[in-house]
Structure formats: C-alpha cells, structure tokens
Design goal:
Blueprint: H1 4-9, H2 23-26, H3 39-50, H4 53-65, E1 68-72, E2 78-81, E3 86-90, H5 95-114, H6 124-151, H7 156-161, H8 167-180, H9 183-193, H10 199-217, H11 229-236, E4 259-260, H12 262-279, E5 292-295, E6 298-301, H13 310-318
Helix pairs in contact: 3-4, 3-5, 4-5, 5-6, 6-8, 6-9, 6-10, 6-11, 8-9, 10-12, 12-13
The protein binds zinc ion.
The site of zinc ion has 6 residues, from α5 and α6.
Length: about 325
C-alpha cells in the first residue's frame, strides 16, 4: 500500500493514513530525529508517551494487541493497518510529530478493536458519521497528550500544536479545562472542534468516494448496517476509564456534524439516486435523510434536494409515466 491515492482507490478502506497534507505539521514542529529509523528512536518516542496517562493507555493497549511499530517511507505521518496489526511511522518527520502520530494511530487501533470502522457494510450516513468520529476522536487524543505533557511542565507539544491547523482543537481543550477543570469536558470540546476544521473536507471527499465505490461494486452486505452516531460514539469515544467522554453523544447525528459541501453533496446525490433507482432501496433505509448539505440556501437534508424517492421514479417509469 503505497500512498493516500491507494486509500482513496480502495473500495473498503481498512487502513487509517493520517495527516495526508505533508507539510502542515512538519514545517512547524522541530526536526529532531528526522530520517532516523532506529529502534532506539521508537523507544525515545515511547518514553515521552510513558510520562502521560493517555500515552501509557495507548502503549499498554498496543502491547496487549501485539501491534508492531515500525518505520516506512510514507508521504504522510503514519497509518494503522488492522490486517497487518502494524503502526507505521514515517521517519521523515520529527520526534514530536511521531509522538503525536503514535498516540493518534494507537487510538485507531483501539477503535478497530471495538467495531469495524470505515466498513462498506455501513450505510452512507453511518459511514460519514463513523469516519468523522474516528478522526475527531484520534485527533482529540493528541490534545489530551499535549495537555498532560503541559501539566508536567513541557509546553512544547502544546505550543507546536498551536501552530498547526488543528490549533482550534487544543485551544478548545485548554479553554474548557481552564473553565471547568474537567478533562472529559475538555476532551469533548476538542473532539467536537474537529468538525469545524477545513481538513474535514478531505475526509468527507474520501468517504463520498468510498460510498460511490461501494455503490458500484454492490457486494453482499453493502450498506446494510445503519448505526446512529450516538451508538457508535458510546463505544468509540471513551476516556481512560472506559467511559464515554461526550456529554451528549447524539450530537454526532446532528445537521452540523453530518454535513457536506456543494461538490460532495452533488456527487453523493448522483450516486444514491442511481443506486436507489437500480436496487429499489429507499433513501431512508440508507440513512440519507440524516445527511445534510450546507449550500447557499442554508443547511438542508440532501433528500430534500433529490427529486423523488428514486424507487417511485422507477415505478413511474415502469408504468410508462414521464
Ligand atoms: Zn487518523
């Protein structure tokens, strides 16, 4: 598996490449250790993680699962592969980048042990909710790490994070923590902030493309599972004690969380009108009435912009109607 292009091209995405924009962190974090692929470097990264509760949780989980951690030539920070049970890190980035990446990928490994994420069995709505959720949760774990290190007197991870496009997440974490002193609330604030980041668009693009691929290939079981965002979050968005850190997990089903831009909405509508017309499956059974489009006219359900229930169109055409 070579690059993000392969990730996009795969019908059923089972790896989790992260940070696909090569330069957004690497120009800002320091370059210590760059190019070094020694086992000692991984040990160094682990030593930093061991200082924190979130880091120890991650390492304990990976040890229990037997996940191997190694270096690979990648154009992004790293990935977790469930099939290979491997976390690969790109040595081209700094120790700080890779420490953050390891806690992020460990989070994906943990998520993968709970439910099958990014599965083609998920309906379009469930896939979008699932995909956004696992990224937001993994990025929030990085904010927890930066915060815990900051509490120990090392502000460098937080400061570096503040120079990335993920900065609003760590700021939301610290603001909420300063207000309430509640680490769960702070983690929730960081996680929900992910949905406002422009990087969300890149993930939405890839999920819309995956939905298209699933619709084209139509394997047994495709689009059959439709869990709500709340159901998935209660299993995936857990703190170190195994409790959901979201005060209201149902927020992940709301119109401002399951929302697409013009291009994505257009593409998804075309795909699903064709799919539903061919198969007779209703929009509602695919959760499409829970997906929103934010365009010039405000936020609307994408189904409100789809002409009729595609099944009805098929029936009308079958009767010779126009
Ligand atoms: Zn990720």
């Amino acid at each position: 598996m070579s690059a993000y292009a392969d990730f996009l091209g795969k019908g059923n995405v089972t790896t989790f490449p992260c940070g696909q924009k090569r330069n957004f962190l690497s120009n800002l974090f320091n370059r210590s250790g760059k190019g070094d692929e020694s086992p000692e470097r991984i040990e160094r990264i682990k030593e930093t993680l061991k200082k924190t509760a979130v880091g120890r949780d991650a390492l304990d989980f990976l040890a229990e699962r037997g996940t191997k951690i190694g270096f690979e030539k990648l154009s992004y920070y790293g990935y977790f592969s469930p099939e290979k049970n491997v976390i690969a890190l790109s040595s081209d980035f700094s120790d700080k980048d890779l420490t953050m990446t390891l806690v992020h990928e460990a989070r994906h490994a943990k998520q993968d042990s709970v439910i099958e994420n990014l599965s083609s069995k998920l309906t379009p709505a469930a896939l979008l909710k699932n995909g956004f959720m696992i990224e937001a949760d993994a990025c929030a774990a990085e904010c927890v790490l930066a915060h815990e290190l900051k509490e120990l007197g090392d502000k460098s991870f937080y400061k570096a994070h503040q120079k990335t496009e993920y900065a609003p997440m760590s700021k939301a974490f610290e603001d909420e923590f300063a207000r309430s002193g509640d680490a769960d609330k702070a983690r929730e604030a960081a996680m929900l902030k992910w949905y406002d980041l422009s990087i969300k668009n890149g993930y939405a693009d890839s999920y819309v493309r995956q939905i298209w691929s699933t619709a084209v290939h139509r394997e047994d079981g495709s689009f059959k599972q439709n869990p709500s965002g709340r159901e998935m979050a209660e299993k995936l968005c857990l703190n170190g004690a195994g409790k959901c850190y979201l005060s209201d997990p149902a927020v992940l089903d709301s119109s401002d969380k399951v929302v697409l831009n013009d291009k994505q909405a257009k593409s998804l509508k075309q795909t699903m009108i064709a799919y539903c017309s061919d198969t007779g499956v209703s929009y509602a059974s695919l959760g499409l009435d829970g997906i929103y489009h934010k365009g010039r006219g405000g936020v609307r359900k994408i189904t409100s912009e789809m002409p009729y229930e595609a099944r009805e169109i098929k029936l009308m055409l079958g009767r010779g109607g126009r």
